[in-house]
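== Sequence, structure tokens ==
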Amino acid sequence: MIDEMVIEGCSIRVNKIGSAKYLFEILEEKNFKFELWTTQKGFIEFNLISADIPDWLSIQSEYDPLTNLAATSCNVQIEHCDRGLYYVEISRNQESFRLQISTKGYLKTRLIAPY
């Protein structure tokens, strides 16, 4: 499980790869990726905390669930808050974007590999 991580000067891509599964890719000097999924049948919610989406952040969704997210030259903080809750902040310069990832069950993570 990923408890907390902060990465500066990176790019991030998040892609939906299953009904309740996402692939996170952090691209920096040493790239790595991990999966995030729920243990319950159902779905993962991405709740936007920030009202505005910055121009440097790309978000696509189909019928509400997030399908992909991408940003370059940014700082990323991911924090595990509770069994079914993660907090994500993506920032560049003085501008930041925040969201919560949640589900009714447990959220699980698995580091796939540095590459």
